[in-house]
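Re-running 8-amino-7-oxononanoate synthase to confirm reproducibility after the cluster update. Everything else is unchanged from the original entry.
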Amino acid sequence: MNGWKARIDQALQQALSQNQKRQRVVCEIKPQSEMMVAGRSYLNFSSNDYLGLSQHPDLLQIAMEAMREHGIGSGGSGHVTGYSAPLASLEQDLATWLGYERAIVYPSGFTANQAIIKLLIAKGDRILADKLSHASIMEAAMLSLGELRRFKHNDPTSLQKLLSQSLLSEDAEQIVITEGVFSMDGDMAPLDALVNVIQDQALFMVDDAHGIGILGNQGRGTCDHFGIHPDILVVTFGKAAGCSGAAILLSAQLAEYFIQSSRPLIYSTAIPPMQAAILRASFTLIRGQIGDALRQKLRKNIHYFQNRMKDLLSEIPESHRLKSSLQLLPSDTPIQPLIIGESDDALKVADSLKQQGIWLSAIRPPTVPPKSARLRITITATHTAAMIDQLIAAFHQVLFDAEYL
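Result of re-run:
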């Protein structure tokens, strides 16, 4: 036991010394991009609730009705008693909307990604993943029986070189994995170019957690935006849909294989019928005129923020201590990362913004590469121009503090 304690103490001390210690803060989320922490109100620029649907009155009403009809739990695994009518209908809705034969709902996107890799990858198989793929993908790949190879971020040529290399055995298979929208940089994968490279050499999987509901016709996501149809598509419900959970979209054959053999599905409690009913209603909004209007408002807000932030950064003098590292990464999505550089500086800027009533979190290594600590600014449809102006004014006050000049 003493050995365990020493090992854990060392890991905790290392995280502390490198400014990598994570903390959870009790937050009370309010409508219209506001939140409360320790009794103080903040403007929320860190939320994944891109369309503001978590507070939509229609969905709140559906939640109350579904709770009265179905209760608050599913009562078991979907393989026992937990596969409710609302859940079955949700899966059918998603499959029809996104153009797949089947959809299978999982408790979370993390679980869904890990379930895919765990089930499909056998000894000798090769996983080709974008270098910046989500932690759930990388962790599962490293723990799998297969060989993990990472291609350069959004680089089809790098992928082509890996695809051309011989596999370990004649019966080995390959899978290519990428995200549709990358969660820390906000950029989109060049899915059409990747498909042209892959052709029939590998199975293709896209995790579109941050693209579904935001991009494409009716919010069908990044794949629809690029006009491609991967073999496996993962969509999550904690971003645009305003709830939680995830689904895997796939062929009927693959779906049957997952139902028979995916242990995270078989041995997990199914999502409650109430949650499935909320999600069905949420995706109905996303597909319809309300979703179109929210996406239009979101795009308008993103462009307004980008113009205001670029104007601010152009005012930073060459003598500014952060001048060489300050950079707004190019992104057409709600994720707008402002690179600060060092973890210490990112934490200081985030803390100073909180004093101005702006809630932003510093994203630091190891989540992002060294020297690229950042503020991950997320723009939503519920932000107003006045809120964005307040954000820029707070940044101006913080960045033009004497400490940095």
